[in-house]
Design goal:
Blueprint lengths: L7 E6 L3 H10 L8 E6 L7 H9 L4 E6 L10 H16 L9 E5 L5 H18 L12
Parallel strand pairs: 1-2, 1-3, 3-4
Helix pairs in contact: 1-4
The chain binds FE2/S2 (inorganic) cluster.
């Protein structure tokens, strides 16, 4: 879409999604350069502050990628992440950040294909939405 280059922060859990991203790299699958990977220990560790900080720092989209339900290394981290998602959407609402800019998904260890697909889909979504004009600090505009 023209010169518009979105930046998307991807929080990847160490035990599954990060390995999935690594597998994508090993398989030389194309990962959009817009995606900035941030390794965390567990998707359940990503709190609303981390997500809002990413948006404030200029991210056009944020992905939280963890292990498949049932596979979380810390047992319930990803289930907590699911619950937190609802809270995060409520937090985003007054900032007028479109909730589609935040995506929670699961990528198993070794599943480079899925990682590549999720990353591509997210870039497509963000390109369709266009640049985010609202940031958490200027909700009155
Ligand atoms: S360790 Fe992967 S989601 Fe918890």
């Amino acid at each position: 879409m023209g010169m518009y280059k979105p930046k998307i922060v991807a929080f990847l859990c160490n035990w599954c999604a990060y390995d999935g991203a690594d597998a994508a790299g090993r398989a030389r699958l194309e990962i959009p350069s817009a995606v900035v990977e941030v390794r965390v220990m567990c998707s359940g560790q990503v709190d609303s502050g981390m997500v809002l900080n990413a948006f404030e720092a200029g991210a056009q989209g944020v992905m939280v990628l963890g292990c498949q339900p049932g596979d979380c290394h810390y047992k319930k981290g990803n289930l907590n992440a699911m619950k937190r998602m609802a809270l995060l959407r409520a937090v985003l609402k007054p900032t007028r950040i479109d909730p589609r800019r935040l995506r929670l998904d699961w990528v198993s260890a070794g599943d480079g294909k899925r990682y590549a697909r999720v990353a591509r889909e997210m870039v497509d979504t963000i390109e369709q939405l266009g640049p985010a004009t609202q940031t958490p600090g200027n909700e009155h505009q």
